[in-house]
């Protein structure tokens, strides 16, 4: 696959060569016989934030969970088509899903710290991976990178569950980056946070994209315009059997999706006319 595929750069208003970290090719995603998402072909650029938007049920979470093989845990799940991670077929038999999840971390809608100390939340993954470096340093660096260090440095031995929701979410982000991933997937990471915590996480995302490639599912269109370089709009069409089938309508620089969309459906969605 072409790892240096042209991806439009939203910040510079012109095209520049940007590496692709994840790519799908006519990807169909099934739960049993139900085709939940059909025919998605897209490239996720490195060191950018890519947002998935669209009405409920169009398959945003289903797709993002394909990127770290989290859907493997669902018996009825299977795909047709391809998902590539850095030129490697992510669903090839030789690929270890555990290693995939180490390289491609995930932060969920509801903060889910382990019922352990703040310190151990961060150190856990490193210990499991037989980390040979200085754990104290790793914990501090990860908490600093997640903009949480100053708030927790004097209580590293308290339980992570005792933090506020916004702090818990930053702890989960710190935990995700402590294992040195390449990509961080975020499925509605601010959905349960107040506006101030939301802005903190958004600021943090801007910092993190220097080092990581980020994909975020969001229902909040202002959030997509604030954080995302690229935005993919998904929609769902009714099927003959009365279900809904998700598909990618339009994928472009965020500015184009919101200010100059090519598709009528995108225009209607971003202007709040449906969804
Ligand atoms: N584990 C599952 N088993 C069967 N069907 C599922 C499963 N998870 C999701 N689906 C179905 O797949 C479709 C897409 O769901 P998904 O949660 O990915 O959409 P979404 O766009 O993320 O929705 P929302 O914005 O409401 O979170 C829906 O029809 C949903 O019912």
Overview of this protein structure:
The two termini are 35 Å apart. α7 (195-208) links the parallel β9 and β10. 32% of the residues lie in helices and 29% in strands. It is an alpha/beta fold. Strands 8-9-10-5-11-12 form a six-stranded mixed beta sheet, sandwiched between helices. Strands 4-3-6-7 form a four-stranded antiparallel beta sheet, covered by helices on one side. α3 packs across α4 (135-145) and α3 packs parallel to α6. The model is unreliable at 1-15 (pLDDT under 50). Residues 31, 36, 54, 56-62, 74, 76, 244, 246 line the site of adenosine-5'-triphosphate (ATP). Its EC number is 3.6.3.27. Keywords: ATP-binding, Hydrolase, Nucleotide-binding, Transport. Residues 22-261 form the ABC transporter domain. It comes from Coleofasciculus chthonoplastes PCC 7420.
């Amino acid at each position: 696959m072409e790892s240096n595929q042209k991806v439009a750069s939203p910040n510079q208003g012109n095209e520049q060569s940007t590496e692709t970290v994840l790519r799908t090719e006519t990807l169909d995603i099934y739960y049993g016989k139900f085709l939940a998402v059909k025919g998605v072909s897209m490239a996720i650029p490195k060191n950018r934030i890519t947002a998935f938007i669209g009405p409920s049920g169009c398959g945003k979470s289903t797709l993002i969970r394909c990127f770290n093989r989290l859907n493997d845990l669902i018996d009825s799940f299977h795909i047709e088509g391809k998902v590539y991670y850095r030129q490697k077929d992510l669903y090839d038999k030789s690929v270890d899903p555990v290693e995939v999840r180490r390289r491609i971390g995930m932060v969920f809608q509801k903060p889910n710290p382990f019922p352990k100390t703040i310190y151990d939340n961060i150190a856990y993954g490193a210990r499991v991976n037989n980390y040979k470096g200085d754990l104290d340093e790793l914990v501090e660096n990860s908490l600093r990178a997640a903009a949480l260090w100053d708030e927790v440095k004097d209580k590293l031995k308290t339980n992570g569950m005792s933090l506020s929701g916004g702090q818990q979410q930053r702890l989960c982000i710190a935990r995700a980056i402590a294992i040195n991933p390449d990509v961080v997937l975020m499925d509605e990471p601010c959905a349960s946070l107040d506006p101030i915590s939301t802005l903190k996480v958004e600021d943090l995302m801007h910092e993190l994209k220097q080092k990581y490639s980020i994909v975020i599912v969001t229902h909040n269109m202002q959030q997509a315009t604030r954080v995302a370089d690229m935005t993919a709009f998904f929609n769902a069409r009714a099927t003959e059997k009365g279900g809904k089938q998700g598909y990618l309508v339009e994928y472009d620089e965020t500015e184009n999706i919101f200010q100059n969309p090519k598709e009528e459906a995108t225009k209607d969605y971003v202007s709040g006319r449906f969804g």
